[in-house]
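User: Could you go from structure to sequence for me? I need the amino acid at each position, not a summary. Structure tokens:
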């Protein structure tokens, strides 16, 4: 199970804690382990079987399916087919980011699944919110 799938509940708890101070989004990018590419055993076991998207409509449909299946209540943004976000930020398979009030990257988590650290991300949120309160 990927960190995102395993920790949706914890992500939602963190969101609840900071929801009045921070905007949260999921950015859905290209499939990291598509059925027509490097499929992972955990995806097969869990029935997460999607080919690499051939169109934006297909990507949007898979993003919606994943969001519903995982009970994600965060807004889901879907990357365009040019994969600029994924290429620029190494977003696949999963990354945690925090953008501060000035639009700067305040936290850039490591690549999932091994460096997906919700404790570290939550600490960065605490620091960022505290700085915003002092500046505010």
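Assistant: Here is the amino acid at each position, in order:
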């Amino acid at each position: 199970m990927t960190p995102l799938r395993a920790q949706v509940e914890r992500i939602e708890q963190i969101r609840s804690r900071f929801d009045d101070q921070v905007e949260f989004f999921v950015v859905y990018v290209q499939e990291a382990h598509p059925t027509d590419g490097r499929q992972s055993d955990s995806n097969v076991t869990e029935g997460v079987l999607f080919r690499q998207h051939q169109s934006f409509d297909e990507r949007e449909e898979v993003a919606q399916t994943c969001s519903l299946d995982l009970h994600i209540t965060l807004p889901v943004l879907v990357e365009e087919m040019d994969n600029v976000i994924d290429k620029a930020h190494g977003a696949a398979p999963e990354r945690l980011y925090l953008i501060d009030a000035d639009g700067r990257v305040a936290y850039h988590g490591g690549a999932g699944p091994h460096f997906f650290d919700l404790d570290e991300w939550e600490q960065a949120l605490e620091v960022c919110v505290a700085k915003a309160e002092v500046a505010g």
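One structural detail worth keeping in mind: The beta strands are 26-28, 76-78, 97-99, 105-108.
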